[in-house]
């Protein structure tokens, strides 16, 4: 079997695998995928002894958040995936107020500042810091590649030209 | 940030394949593959998080871009560059899918 046939066969197998995952929760691994949301909880330590609870829809799942964390959620077109519904803090079975997420609450950072009169004190802001870092990384790499290309070409013009014509 | 550990994992999976294929130009291959991954990984991550672009389409674009990069910078023909890139990216994608199935959310 020559190399072109091998690449073709592998490509076909890869696509078949992705189709198999077409209707699993979240459409994981396939093209049948919804947007991923991220929610960051920061300054959890300001809640002192209270434990933060994140509540999901479906299955009534509750997750305890004990340290600053970022969560990624993907909505599914197939079987529904649990999505975050609300959060509250608990101390000795006494709960603070419960904060419901809005549908617009996507890619947000919730920065806690404490608890006052049994109410969670926090600020909520849109978060795009990671996006900027990622773009910066990519930009740095492309500049590096261009620089390297020019440097190698200047150093040994025949080397890159020879490679390109091979 | 926690998200960057996935970049290191990608490198860990892809580098050995590229370095083995281009073992006669080890140093250059190492530098080029790291830079190529530094270029493609953030872009695919941004697109994955912020858009509905199907993952197989993004992976195919990445394998083509990295294949072109390998061909431009390293000695070898187009078939070798594309095959090595396909193998490396296919391996890291498959491993990623497997890990996401095995590990709890």
Give a brief description:
The complex is a heterodimer of chains A (166) and B (105). Chain A is α+β, with helices and mostly antiparallel strands. Chain A contains three helices and nine strands.
Overall description:
Chain A has 166 residues and is of the alpha+beta class. Chain A has three domains: 1-32; 34-127, no CATH class; 131-165. Chain A is 33% helix and 31% strand. In chain A, strands 2, 3, 5, 6 and 7 form a five-stranded antiparallel β-sheet that branches. Chain A has a four-stranded mixed β-sheet with strand order 4-1-8-9, with no helix packed on it. In chain A, β2 and β3 form a beta hairpin. The longest helix of chain A is centred in the last third of the chain and has 27 residues, at 129-155. Mean pLDDT of chain A is 73; it is low at 23-32. With 105 residues, chain B is mostly helical. Chain B has one domain (2-102). Chain B has helices at 5-21, 26-50, 55-73, 78-102. Chain B starts with a helix and ends with a helix. The interface between A and B is large, with 43 and 43 residues.
